[in-house]
Amino acid sequence: MSDLFNKCSFLDENERCSIHNIRPGICRLFPLGRYWEDDEHFKYILQKGQCHKDNLTKIKVKKWLGITGISEYNAFVVKWHKFLKQIQRSMTGLNDEQVRILNKFILKTFYQTPYSKSISFANQFDDRLMMVKDRLGLEE
Q1: 73 contact partners, CB below 8 Å, separation of at least 6
Q2: Rounded CA gap, 38 and 32, in Å?
Q3: At a CB cut-off of 8 Å and minimum separation 6, what does 113 contact?
Q4: pLDDT tens digits for 44-98?
Q5: How far apart are alpha carbons 121 and 123 in whole angstroms?
Q6: Measured CA distances, 16 to 10, 104, 119, 128 (Å)
Q7: What is the pTM (predicted TM-score) of this model?
């Protein structure tokens, strides 16, 4: 397989991330993963063999992720995880068209509708989550 498929397209000519300061969550996490103990508790784990850099040193998860307010971030991760599990359970018995409509609604609400920079992401997310649960008749 060619290197084109084996490395990130955002690596520069020096094999450094060219979007490091604005990288998405999945990139911040790599090569870490999350091990879910239940719907509300998880631990970060290192996915051995995923990072092919030499001479890596130990680093705390908080520093690795580079997210200020790691507690708030982790609380968001738990809320999102619980919501997705709830949606997954609610899809039982839906036909393909209903699933498509539900997926489109979730994508539009959480991903395609811009978030304001003047209001905290957490507050906007919580408002959207509450609205979606209300519209879909989902229990807290």
Answers
A1: 65, 67
A2: 18
A3: 128
A4: 887 766 566 666 667 777 777 777 888 888 899 999 999 999 999 999 999 999 9
A5: 6
A6: 8, 35, 32, 36
A7: 0.73
